[in-house]
Amino acid sequence: MPTKENVHAGHRERLREKFNTGKELFKEHELLELLLGYSIARKDTNALAHNLISRFGSLNGVLSAPTELLKQVDGVGERTASLISLVGYVSTLNQKEKKEKTKLNNIATVKELAIELFKGLDHEVFYMFYLDQQKRILGSTLLDDGNIEKVGLDFDKFTKSILVYKPKSVIVLHNHFAKYPYPSEADDQATAKICAFLNFHKVSLFDHVIVSGEEIYSYFYDNRLQSIKQHIKDKLFQF
């Protein structure tokens, strides 16, 4: 007759095999259950995994939780809390490294980022990504209400971000719900305002990208941005 220890050992082995052959199919509680198995021996960790996710809201919430709060959950000792915190910290460093290495210096990379960024949204949002000299992402600003016609109302927020990140250039992204993301007159006006604003701060507008489903429109690659910049320059020379 199998003992409880054998039953749990067999379950964990099956869980590991499932992870190795199809990790993308794992649910959050299964990932956490597998992780807990490395610090809690001879016990069923399924209930604890569910309890932790319920307590902290998500797997990410569990991995981000302070060690002292984790230890307040029944069944989580010093060793388990330390393991969870370690995995969470390593994950954070990994994401930070990936972000720092991401360069928005070609249309393929910009398109990949843009489509993923706006996937599944049912309203307009507006992003500004701050880039260094090599076009690596330093940070970003998100506006939940991405009405491009109201962009002038948020320049104080952009100013604070520019002072924090000290970017060399900026890329602007927002979404449309038309079949093809062709720019409107309001988009052109907003692009000109943003460009003039950034010029004042000695920062270059690298691109303005409009996204609609799997399609994007790039002001830079369509030479529309260059025309807007030239128009701004011509107006300045008139004074």
CATH topology of the largest domain: Cytidine Deaminase, domain 2
* Uncertain residue ranges: none
The whole-number mean of residue pLDDT values reads 83
Q: What characteristic shape results from the CA principal axes?
A: elongated
* Major sheet summary line: 5 strands, mixed
Q: Write the element-wise H/E pattern from the N-terminal end onward.
A: HHHHHHHEEHEHEEH
Number of domains as seen in the coordinates? 2
User: In which order are the strands of the major sheet placed?
Assistant: 2-1-3-4-5
Secondary structure category: alpha+beta
Annotated CATH architecture of the largest domain: 3-Layer(aba) Sandwich
Q: N- to C-terminal separation? A: 93 Å
Description:
The chain has helices spanning 4-22, 28-36, 46-56, 59-64, 67-70, 78-101, 107-118, 155-165, 185-200, 224-237, and strands spanning 126-131, 137-143, 169-175, 204-212, 215-218. The chain is of the alpha+beta class and 239 residues long. Helix 2 crosses helix 3 (46-56) and helix 9 (185-200) packs across helix 10. The protein has a 5-stranded mixed β-sheet. The model has no long low-confidence stretch (mean pLDDT 83). It has 10 helices and 5 strands; from the N terminus they run αααααααββαβαββα. It is elongated.
